Amino acid sequence: MSDVFNDVPAGTHPAYDSPEYKSTGLRSPRRPLVRLPQTLTELTGPRPGADKLGPTLADFTKCHGGEAVGERIIVTGRVLDEDGRPVPQAVLEIWQANAAGRYAHPVDQHDAPLDPHFVGNGRVTTGDDGSYRFMSIKPGAYPWGNHHNAWRPNHIHFSLFGPGVATRLVTQMYFPGDPLLALDPIYNAVPDADARARLISQFDIEVTEPNYALGYRFDIVVRGRHATPMEN
Amino acid sequence: MPGLTSSQTVGPYFHLGLIQEGQSTLVESGTKGERIALLGQVSDGNGTPITDAMIEIWQANAAGRYDHPTDAQDKPLDPAFHGFGRAAVDGTGHYRFETIRPGAVPGRGNAMQAPHIAVTVFARGLLLHLNTRLYFAGEALNDADPVLALVPDDRRQTLIATPVAGEPIPTYRFDIRIQGERETVFFEI
Fold it and tell me: Which of A35, B45, B75, B122 has minimal CB crowding within 10 Å?
């Protein structure tokens, strides 16, 4: 049997019960989790090509015959394992709000315009060096009902499997310098400040394409000491 | 959005981009093994159905082998079965999968595990997904399963799926209670 996946240091992931994020109140277990030494079940997991995640879509900026409104961005980075080695062939599922801060979903009733040329989701697969890249529009902030005058910072959702069930990761990428970060109960649910900072992408002029789009870099680490925190 | 209904996403629009048609059916015509259905309801600490949950499952094929390079057992792969499923719950908090009953897979050391399915739960308000396992009622290997043995006696039943009568194919019910009375056992892995 393969070696097991390493633990993640305390404080990297949010607590299930995070009182500032009110929806966790009735949706967090009260009984302690049972520690399960990893078996073949947890060391294996769904793989791209053997699943049903949908087609690759790496450019969110053009849709339904037109160009999305907003500030074009390029997001790139590497998916790394706990030892800093690239995770090749990992499928990233990505979704986000449009530039006005609205999701292309019927339940989102935020009074901000929909963009007929922006759906805001896609899938990319990492290369042999663990790298991924996609084009999008910088998502807008939007209000939510958690508390008075609550706004989510600009963010992009990521979901990936990695090598096994034990490396399943869902998280959110933020943007540098966003004043809403300090006020956001979801971002601040990650207890450790260094771990929290790993959720913020870095502006990168080398990734930026002249006369076209700003570039951001966001690496994702599955498990281990430098793990990217979960933010489902 | 293709494959989405309004009941599936509330608040942070968790499922936008994740749910695709057909993900809850793991079998195809050539899949080997006993076809079964799994269903259940997801509920919160008040017993209220959670209507924005997403469930993922991962399991071995009928021979007890995972479709994954880490599984080096000398058992056949099934080209018509890959072991991954994903389902959104409906407006009443129910999910449903069509799959096959998995074979037994080894545990740590020389232990054999009872047939089981890894179940992962996602929902608004769950900052980290929850990991649990589904076992089958009446399975003789349950009594010797090394993971079930880690669970306190009075909570073990929360991991056992029970037969549902009157269904067209053998069907098992596995409710997921995130908090409170008969709270499902969740694992730290």
Answer: A35
Question: In this structure, what token pair is assigned to residue A198?
Answer: 């790993």
- From CA A76, how far away is CA A59, in angstroms rounded? 12
Contact: A27, B12; criterion CB under 8 Å: no
The residues spanned by each domain of chain B are 6-177
A121 touches chain B (CB under 8 A): yes
Mind listing the domains of chain A with CATH numbers? 22-26+37-221 (2.60.130.10)
pLDDT digits (tens, 9 = 90+) for B30-56: 999 999 999 999 999 999 999 999 999
Active site residue A105: no
Distances (CA, A) of A6 to A40, A147, B121: 15, 37, 22
Structure tokens at A46: 């769904």
ipTM associated with this complex: 0.94
Contact at 8 Å (CB) between B107 and A4?
no
Rounded Cα gap, residues A66 and A76, in angstroms:
24
Express each pLDDT in A121-142 by its tens digit. 899 999 999 999 999 999 999 9
Can you tell me the distance from the alpha carbon of A193 to that of A12, in angstroms, rounded to the nearest whole number?
9
- Verify whether residue A21 is a known catalytic residue: no
Contact A27 B178 (CB under 8 A): yes
Q: Is-contact B35 B169, C-beta < 8 A? A: yes
A157 is catalytic: yes
Phi, psi for A139 (deg, rounded to 5): -70, 145
CATH architecture of B6-177: Sandwich (2.60)
Residues of A in contact with B184 (CB under 8 A): 29
Q: Do A35 and B188 touch (CB under 8 A)?
A: yes
Per the CB < 8 Å rule, is A34 touching B187? Answer: yes
Percent of chain A with pLDDT over 70: 97
